[in-house]
Amino acid sequence: MDPSPQSKPPPSDLLRLDDVRKSYAVGPVATEVLRDVRLRVDRGDLLSIMGPSGCGKSTLMNLLGLLDRPNSGSYLLDGVEVTTLDDDERSTLRNRRIGFVFQSFQLLPRLTAAENVGLPLVYRGLPEREIRRRVDDGLERLGMAAFAERKPSELSGGQQQRVAIARALIGGPAVLLADEPTGALDQETSGEIMRLLIQLNVDEGLTIVIVTHDPQVDQQCRRRTRIREGVLREDTGAGLVP
Amino acid sequence: MPVALRLLPFRRVAAAIATAPIVRANVREAVTSLRLNPQRTSLAVLGIVLGVASVTAMVSVGVAARAEARERFKDLGTQTLVVRKRGSAVPSAAAKVIHAEDVALLPGRAATIEVAAPVLQVFGNVTYAGRALESNAMLGVTEAFAALNKLAPRAGRFLSDLDVHRPFCVLGWQVAQEMSERRGRHDLVGEVVSLAGRLYTVVGVLGRRGDSSLLPFRADESVLVPLSTAQRAFVGTEIQAVVAQMAPDADPDAAIAEVQRYFQGLGVRVRVSGAEQLVDALQHQMRLFTLLLAAVGGISLVVGGASAMNVMLTSVTERRREVGIRRALGARRGEIRNQFLTEAVALALIGGVIGIAIGVAVPLGICLYAGWAFALSPVAMVLGLGVASAVGVFFGAYPASRAAALDPIAALRAD
């Protein structure tokens, strides 16, 4: 399935990484996890980052999601240099511009589905009634309205991931970062979640970056990148280009 | 803009209102979290309960002492002062005594004093119908004494200043009771009693007065005679006390000082006491108790705070993943800190409310037991809540800052 893009917004870089390096100190030795990463993500892209475990894809995801900062290099998010922002500024930006979807859903077990979905808006300081309205819409959009008052433990894996996606989308993010979104799901449910993500990308022009080691997931993305030993390359179909 | 005004946290207040849902969410989260671990919560709360109870009890006891003192003064009025002559170690001819004339002049000399009545007390046999009564006190008083001590005759009349040197007497309530029992008569006016060998005619019988710990005599158990008569009958007996009434707007401390100065000027050493002095005396009596409560309270609060901190640290460790999720969704460090701080304060306030209940109940029990008047002290309750909140903030600050400082990436990976 290779959905043709329709009415795409003007192609400009939404995410733009240049010469990004990241290393961690393991004992006295610094281990380089990412090396000179250069990446462009356009609005409306559906991009996969594939690689074996330990290749640095999680680190890259954390950098993209503003959970971490590179040692050097530049990261422009929608034209804003984010590597120099402080913790609070990055938190605010994360709240407004980034939507996370995790392999293990990462829903808060004590909160209902609706409360989980509304959490980003609570941190945005919206009034309760407004949060309630948007949460209802968001759950409806993902076909989860009937499960609003359920706790995560009362939902199936697929349902939990739908709630998590609803939560990621509630704040109207610029980009959805999905870290192995189907990793904890069975084949059938995986397909369902992937179809949902592709539908969001096609119908609503949502920019999605998926980190995966599953070739089936990778196959369904329009743009595919490979990461190996900290080096990122794009797979254009005609071979890998740096 | 004045400095004080600029220091007011307008922006913070505005921000707090703007983020009202987060405050509500934090409170809800805190309550849920505490409810899910009832055993742990109750253990953590125990020390705070004890501490707040002690603090509340400490204040309540102080308030109760004041209430009790006020109660003891209620029938006399807080405007009453009692002047007692200080005994001199060596009786000498030079030692000055209180003269009735000086007492009569006191209201004119001291602006803070309206009325003053001298009292002389003698003990001796009171004989009626040939046998001595149990009561053996005689008071030499003036006409003003009745009004000052709120004494009203049940039968007959009170002594008058016109009864100078006359052998008249007025019976205290208890004395009259005893005499009625002896003769089976109720109308005692006109009867004759013998006081230390001299005969007196009863002109009045007093109603029940009740004791006042403030006064150095018991009117109910005394036979009252005119001061002039007493001074003549018991030569060498001096006026031991003066009961005085302050002007309504007089400051008690100023009045006491003025009275003291007046008698000092006459060369007489006196001790003047009023309601406040009684409060001080009562509070002094309870100082050991108060100190004990303060010590128990202080120690309990520290121990309780530490155990609350321990519980909070455990809670933070258990909820690292939650912190990671919240951070990923855009929670700032400050918001994570506030969430855990809210929980710590909620924990402390639960302890505080229970502690206040105990801290009020215990002094109430003591007062009931001691027969004291009890007054509920809003100050004690507010203080209890304040102390609890302060403990919550103080001992919650460290765990909360630990939570806020968690690395979101590591926290997300935690189990």
Q: What's the short version?
A:
The complex is a heterodimer of chains A (242) and B (415). Chain A is of the alpha/beta class. Chain A has one domain (13-235): Rossmann fold (3-Layer(aba) Sandwich).
Largest interface: A-B, 30 and 28 residues
End-to-end CA span of chain A = 25 Å
Counted up, domains of chain A total 1
Please compute the radius of gyration of chain A using only Cα atoms. 18 Å
CATH superfamily of chain A: P-loop containing nucleotide triphosphate hydrolases
Describe this structure in words.
- The complex is a heterodimer of chains A (242) and B (415).
- Chain A has 242 residues and is of the alpha/beta class.
- Chain A contains seven helices and eleven strands.
- In chain A, the strands form two sheets. Chain A has a seven-stranded mixed β-sheet, with helices on both faces. A four-stranded antiparallel β-sheet of chain A has the order 2-1-4-5, covered by helices on one side.
- In chain A, β1 and β2 form a beta hairpin.
- Chain A is globular.
- Chain A starts with 12 loop residues before the first strand and ends with a strand.
- Chain B is α+β, with helices and mostly antiparallel strands.
- Chain B folds into two domains: 183 residues, no CATH class; 194 residues, no CATH class.
- Chain B is 58% helix and 15% strand.
- In chain B, strands 1, 2, 3, 4, 5, 6, 7, 8, 9, 10, 11 and 12 form a twelve-stranded mixed β-sheet that branches.
- In chain B, a hairpin with a 2-residue loop joins β3 and β4.
